[in-house]
Description:
Pdz3 Domain; 2-enoyl-CoA Hydratase, Chain A, domain 1; 12 helices; globular; 3 domains; six-stranded mixed beta sheet
Amino acid sequence: xxxxxxxxxxxxxxxxxxxxxxxxxxxxxxxxxxxxxxxxxxxxxxxxxxxxxxxxxxxxxxxxxxxxxxxxxxxxxxxxxxxxxxxxxxxxxxxxxxxxxxxxxxxxxxxxxxxxxxxxxxxxxxxxxxxxxxxxxxxxxxxxxxxxxxxxxxxxxxxxxxxxxxxxxxxxxxxxxxxxxxxxxxxxxxxxxxxxxxxxxxxxxxxxxxxxxxxxxxxxxxxxxxxxxxxxxxxxxxxxxxxxxxxxxxxxxxxxxxxxxxxxxxxxxxxxxxxxxxxxxxxxxxxxxxxxxxxxxxxxxxxxxxxxxxxxxxxxxxxxxxxxxxxxxxxxxxxxxxxxxxxxxxxxxxxxxxxxxxxxxxxxxxxxxxxxxxxxxxxxxxxxxxxxxxxxxxxxxxxxxxxxxxxxxxxxxxxxxxxxxxxxxxxxxxxxxxxxxxxxxxxxxxxxxxxxxxxxxxxxxxx
Length: 463
């Protein structure tokens, strides 16, 4: 079984399946369901709500779903919004490591014009060297047709959700209308590893030396490596910030759905006015997991401390502004919550997802189990034992990025522009959009590829 840190589950899986030869026959659906039940009964945060008489005749997907204590705004407001199962454990593990089959283009889909069924795609960012980048796509590009068909709310899913080559027709948004152009770009998805440390810059505005870093997912290293390459890349950026005497930081997590706790701890340790004796966050488990691990590991199992980082800039920071949106979740929120007891954290953008719970990856391919599970197993709290963001963090300043997007680092970007204003007191460019416009544009958004990225807001896992 593949599960880092959480060793007891290895023993539990062995109760269900004995060791087999290297050429392992696939487990039957009943065997798979038995494995799912054993692990969920032990690990699931809401284990007390799991039935004692499950129906093993269901398909594994339906069986897993039947065990969940599902969220309901009225009946179960404390319920589960985030656990999921993936048919292929290998694909699950790869996606958690930032590897997936993709064009390398992340985008949002919006109704445009508003109050119609017409849909356009707006490119949020493009992975360097990807098929989309090679085809010429860039942040802010707009497309209205795929394979010669204009997108609507009834056909966009069928047009976009394939692994085949797609032809995108570009468009311009002008004066509230969409003007389709003659420009077409062909893109075919490939297996691609994403580097989540995407962009950084330093701004000097008066006496303010402002570091800016864009971080897309909490991933320590490329999939199937053990070199901490992405964590080290962040370390190097903060080392440059420190050498540049940065006294303010803008952390851009607007498209970051979460990721590994180890990378969240690393990032927070680069920013906070903290020591290695300070608690970053506490972990709250169900009664059985708590009792087992308290005996085996002691109290230290239930909290993570900050780590000492020579690149830490916290001592010199006068301002920390975090850019957030409805796509900011999980480990992104963990960093915000974990830093709040130690410094003022100003949030600019939109309301975050509200994922104050954590999951682990459960798989057992060596015993013929093909599926992978990502169940919620814990709740997170900061040093002050606060975990009051289950409905999301409300931004201190509500700002919409809009549908006309600017390159990363461009102060005309409404979120970055507002962050610079919060730090300097001076509007470098135009002011951000009003809260009313923010609400209207949020209502016009249909979906985004970020929400499906490695489970989207379902991410927050330990490594």
